[in-house]
Amino acid sequence: MTSATAISAESLVKNFGTNRALDGVEFSAREGRVLGLLGPNGAGKTTAVRILTTLLRPDAGSASVAGHDVLTEPHAVRRSIGLSGQYAAVDENLTGRENLYMVGRLYGMNRPDARRRAGELLDGFQLGEAGDRIAKGYSGGMRRRLDLAGALVARPPVVMLDEPTTGLDPRGRMDTWRLIAELVDDGTTVLLTTQYLEEADALADTIAVIDHGRVIANGTSNELKSLVGGERLELVVDEATELDTAAEVLAGIGSDTPRVDAQSRRLQVVVNDGSKSLIEAVRRLGDSGIEVHDVGLHRPTLDDAFLSLTGKPTEVSGNGGTTDVAEPEGAATAERAEWGGRQ
Amino acid sequence: MTVVPPSLRDSSVVAWRNLLNIKRNPDWLLSGTVQPIMFVLLFAFVFGGSLGGGRYREFLIAGIFVQTVAFNSSFTVIGLTNDLQKGIVDRFRALPMSRVAVLLGRTSSDLAVSLLSVVIMSLCGLLIGWRLRGDPTDVLTGYLVLLLFSFAMSWVGAFIGLISRTVEVAQSAGLLWLFPVTFISSVFVSAESMPTPLRVFARWNPITVNADALRELFGNPIRVGMPPPSSWPAEHAVPYAVGSSLVIIAVFVPLSVARYRRVASR
């Protein structure tokens, strides 16, 4: 069991002044798997990554990477990891090739090996032609690819990617996803932080949802989805007074009770069969003579996940993340046990 | 600290990277090359006339050398804080490389910049009448003393860069302290004509002693109608200059390395 655990964090605590960035965070990743740390800005994801990569010391708790303790064997940890930061740490005055060569040399490779590896990675990351151009002229996506390549120079068994797609256009994001998937095919363990539920869903085998320095949910992507529920049917009525009627009319259409927000005249309900539910909803509303301003389906977002997990949207969950996990209707008791908020 | 060979290899990689950065942005060299020329010309001709003409110019050059390499320590401050801010240092710190290499690489590449400054100033000095009158061994020793001092000052700069909270603070902190330290010295005038507190400071100031040591080794006249230096440091200028540089290195290398281990990115 321990031999198969590539990354583990136990009860990590980190304070910055009076701000508790990590408040007992726990997670682990098995070898060759992808662990996604999912959470909004400021949740503590980057702090956790910085501790795992030996850049920060935790105030309490312990962590190990590839079997090495981050506090007592930092050098062995650094030898086993590749890091790609939130803001690509590319030296923009060096060419792509020089950047990778430098990293290779600093991993202890000799000159010919470092040169050869830089060439391989440039080709693999579609930077072959741009390799001898100065990185200052690279596009955001190219810089990100170069930063990612830098994390892989020494073929480390564990790769940490801090928000690898933040700031990328959709195509850049798809490219990055493909590269990460290839990494995993080669048996690399990946820790990935993201603000996008969709991204964690697409890439991660297990997901730890982090809020206010705590893991508020932890499980596989499917478990998270069944907890968060399917698509959301959302509509805005013309008159706020009609909200309650609309909620009554739509009761039973989805898997939970419709939630209403009087201020924005908005109603939201989790539905299981997408467009069929949408058509049914529009028909029922039409029959009741309720004027609808806007209606549509959307896939669950991080906000929705937080709403399901904490009963509050991300912006206002201000009590340190110690909330009991609200159980959405339809979630099985067994899942609740698995998903219980860590105290 | 790790064993010597990997740390030297890593430092040379970092220094190579720093020099490539300078090569790609030659305008960074402006203050390291144009500023000393400006100082030589300003002081030589603005003050020179009332302070002894050609003889003053000959006195002045060694002082400007020392002042310039002291000011070059601000390159270390700026280079290091830039790397911290851009996340480059984080990338280095997450690599299995020597802990001292980022700093030693930086101070080494800045030593190369100082060498360039010294070459330019020497040429400029020769043009305005400065002459090397010492024997070649002494002259070479003089340049080595100067470069050792430059290296020592660079480590002070590294420490300032690492304790500064922002790049802006680092830039002003890295420069401000140099004005009193270089002016309360024998760089421009003899320390002996200063009021007592300043004179005491100036006599023991490594800047003074390095300037005196260079004048001695280059064979440039120390007396230009000014009171001659008369203090223990002045009488033992060369050993005191070398000794003070070694003390600065011995203090600021461990301080900076300790600070580097703890510093978080900004």
TrEMBL record, chain A:
<dbReference type="GO" id="GO:0046677">
    <property type="term" value="P:response to antibiotic"/>
</dbReference>
<dbReference type="InterPro" id="IPR003439">
    <property type="entry name" value="ABC_transporter-like_ATP-bd"/>
</dbReference>
<keyword id="KW-0046">Antibiotic resistance</keyword>
<keyword id="KW-0067">ATP-binding</keyword>
<dbReference type="InterPro" id="IPR050763">
    <property type="entry name" value="ABC_transporter_ATP-binding"/>
</dbReference>
<dbReference type="InterPro" id="IPR005894">
    <property type="entry name" value="DrrA"/>
</dbReference>
<comment type="similarity">
    <text>Belongs to the ABC transporter superfamily. Drug exporter-1 (DrugE1) (TC 3.A.1.105) family.</text>
</comment>
<dbReference type="InterPro" id="IPR017871">
    <property type="entry name" value="ABC_transporter-like_CS"/>
</dbReference>
<dbReference type="InterPro" id="IPR003593">
    <property type="entry name" value="AAA+_ATPase"/>
</dbReference>
<dbReference type="GO" id="GO:0005524">
    <property type="term" value="F:ATP binding"/>
</dbReference>
<dbReference type="GO" id="GO:0043215">
    <property type="term" value="P:daunorubicin transport"/>
</dbReference>
<dbReference type="InterPro" id="IPR027417">
    <property type="entry name" value="P-loop_NTPase"/>
</dbReference>
<keyword id="KW-0472">Membrane</keyword>
<dbReference type="Pfam" id="PF00005">
    <property type="entry name" value="ABC_tran"/>
</dbReference>
<keyword id="KW-1003">Cell membrane</keyword>
<dbReference type="GO" id="GO:1900753">
    <property type="term" value="P:doxorubicin transport"/>
</dbReference>
<feature type="region of interest" description="Disordered">
    <location>
        <begin position="312"/>
        <end position="343"/>
    </location>
</feature>
<dbReference type="GO" id="GO:0005886">
    <property type="term" value="C:plasma membrane"/>
</dbReference>
<keyword id="KW-1278">Translocase</keyword>
<dbReference type="GO" id="GO:0016887">
    <property type="term" value="F:ATP hydrolysis activity"/>
</dbReference>
<protein>
    <submittedName>
        <fullName>ABC-2 type transport system ATP-binding protein</fullName>
    </submittedName>
</protein>
<keyword id="KW-0813">Transport</keyword>
From TrEMBL, chain B:
<dbReference type="Pfam" id="PF01061">
    <property type="entry name" value="ABC2_membrane"/>
</dbReference>
<keyword id="KW-0046">Antibiotic resistance</keyword>
<feature type="transmembrane region" description="Helical">
    <location>
        <begin position="237"/>
        <end position="258"/>
    </location>
</feature>
<dbReference type="GO" id="GO:0046677">
    <property type="term" value="P:response to antibiotic"/>
</dbReference>
<feature type="transmembrane region" description="Helical">
    <location>
        <begin position="140"/>
        <end position="163"/>
    </location>
</feature>
<dbReference type="InterPro" id="IPR051784">
    <property type="entry name" value="Nod_factor_ABC_transporter"/>
</dbReference>
<feature type="transmembrane region" description="Helical">
    <location>
        <begin position="101"/>
        <end position="128"/>
    </location>
</feature>
<dbReference type="GO" id="GO:0043190">
    <property type="term" value="C:ATP-binding cassette (ABC) transporter complex"/>
</dbReference>
<keyword id="KW-0812">Transmembrane</keyword>
<dbReference type="InterPro" id="IPR013525">
    <property type="entry name" value="ABC2_TM"/>
</dbReference>
<keyword id="KW-0472">Membrane</keyword>
<dbReference type="InterPro" id="IPR000412">
    <property type="entry name" value="ABC_2_transport"/>
</dbReference>
<feature type="domain" description="ABC transmembrane type-2">
    <location>
        <begin position="27"/>
        <end position="263"/>
    </location>
</feature>
<feature type="transmembrane region" description="Helical">
    <location>
        <begin position="28"/>
        <end position="47"/>
    </location>
</feature>
<keyword id="KW-1133">Transmembrane helix</keyword>
<feature type="transmembrane region" description="Helical">
    <location>
        <begin position="59"/>
        <end position="80"/>
    </location>
</feature>
<protein>
    <recommendedName>
        <fullName>Transport permease protein</fullName>
    </recommendedName>
</protein>
<dbReference type="InterPro" id="IPR047817">
    <property type="entry name" value="ABC2_TM_bact-type"/>
</dbReference>
<dbReference type="GO" id="GO:0140359">
    <property type="term" value="F:ABC-type transporter activity"/>
</dbReference>
<keyword id="KW-0813">Transport</keyword>
<keyword id="KW-1003">Cell membrane</keyword>
<feature type="transmembrane region" description="Helical">
    <location>
        <begin position="175"/>
        <end position="191"/>
    </location>
</feature>
